[in-house]
TrEMBL record:
Protein known as: WRKY transcription factor 23
Assigned keywords, A-Z: DNA-binding, Nucleus, Transcription, Transcription regulation
GO biological process, alphabetically ordered: regulation of DNA-templated transcription; vegetative to reproductive phase transition of meristem
Organism, scientific name: Capsicum annuum
Compositionally biased tracts (Polar residues): 90-101
DNA sequence: CGGTTTTGACCGGCGC
DNA sequence: GCGCCGGTCAAAACCG
């Protein structure tokens, strides 16, 4: 992975809570210095700028507007686009990486203004096919459905289906943005600071692993997430978030940084992912960081495999961008 | 006892 | 029209 200067693999632990890229609260609350690559200076891919780090939690509960997020993912908010990042390079299974960001902004938009992304097969890449089939492909189909169905099919959220039925035909509903991550973990439901209630579980076609459906327990918050395990690589967990939280992160309310390691918060959780999704300096479509880069910067070994969990981020930089192809609306 | 999980049923979209 | 599939509902079970 180090062959790719833009492929940064990060394995981290916070000693109490795992977070996804973007996850967590205000960066200032972190014990560790939040880091992101300096986007302004493409030649310094290892230069990190703590001040501009954006957590997913912030993103999800709205401190980061969708336009910003879209720009981070290199997508226009005005068009529905889907970026699937199932990629693992040719190193295939040897790569121990593992959070892949999939930005799936799903906004209601004119049919002619759609952009979807197809994921070309990657040689020797189990994760590629994995996510493509177990996650990416399905998401793609779902997204297509989202795009195609303008009568509020996916607008149910916390509304009942009956309510949805009552929705006037043709009434457009704003599609919630989606973000998917692939995480290498033995824990399916990675803690992100929010409280979730499981409301469904479905068997996934061609996969021995079921897909779990969660909904944010906060009232009037319609954020949902799906968690499924890759059927080709059982160590890969595909998490898809849909929507943005309209409230603060419950964990954060417990007291800024202390929640990260507080035994009162997720006491049973082992040290887990404490990572930041980074924005490659030369690509605004992929987000990633490597443990190497991280360690080099922090002189700290964040690689952790103890307690059965191993986390990384992966995405694609310049070299990896090849598997992301924007598909023009047909 | 309240919140969460489980799980079979149901619904709507889509392809044939 | 029918079957498949993903997503959701909701009652029952479970749990702290």
């Amino acid at each position: 992975m180090s062959d790719n200067p833009f492929y940064h693999d990060y394995m981290g632990t916070s000693g109490g809570i795992n977070t996804f890229p973007f996850f967590g609260e205000n960066p200032s609350n972190y014990h560790d210095q939040p880091i992101i690559p300096n986007i302004q200076n493409p030649n310094h891919e290892h230069q990190f700028v703590p001040s501009s780090y954006m957590t997913l939690t912030e993103c999800l509960h709205g401190s980061m507007d969708y336009n910003t997020l879209s720009s981070v993912f290199g997508m226009s908010c005005s068009s529905s686009s889907e970026v699937v990042c199932p990629h693992i390079d040719n190193q295939g299974s040897t790569r121990k990486s593992s959070v892949s960001a999939t930005a799936e902004p799903i906004l209601d938009s004119p049919m002619g203004d759609q952009t979807s992304v197809e994921v070309p097969p990657t040689p020797n890449s189990s994760i590629s096919s994995t996510s493509n089939e177990a996650g990416g492909q399905e998401d793609s189909s779902k997204i297509k459905k989202h795009m195609q169905n303008k009568d509020g099919q996916e607008g149910r959220d916390d509304k009942s289906k009956k309510e949805c039925k009552a929705t006037k035909k043709g009434e457009k509903k704003v599609k919630e943005p989606r973000f998917a991550f692939m995480t290498k973990s033995e824990i399916d439901n990675l803690e992100d600071g929010y409280r979730w209630r499981k409301y469904g579980q479905k068997a996934v076609k061609n996969s021995p692993f079921p897909r779990n459906y969660y909904r944010c327990t906060t009232q009037k918050c319609s954020v949902k997430k799906r968690v499924e395990r890759s059927y080709e690589d059982a160590s890969i967990v595909i998490t898809t978030y849909e929507g943005q939280h309209n409230h603060h992160c419950p964990a954060a309310l417990r007291g800024n940084a202390s929640f990260l390691s507080s035994p009162h918060f997720m006491p049973s959780f082992p040290p887990q992912l404490f990572s930041q999704m980074l924005i490659p300096p030369t690509s605004n479509q992929n987000l990633l960081i490597t443990s190497e880069a991280y360690n080099n910067i922090n002189n700290n070994n964040y690689h952790q495999q103890n307690q059965g969990s191993e986390y990384n981020l992966f995405g694609g930089g310049t070299n990896d961008a090849s598997w992301i192809q924007k598909q023009e609306p047909s």
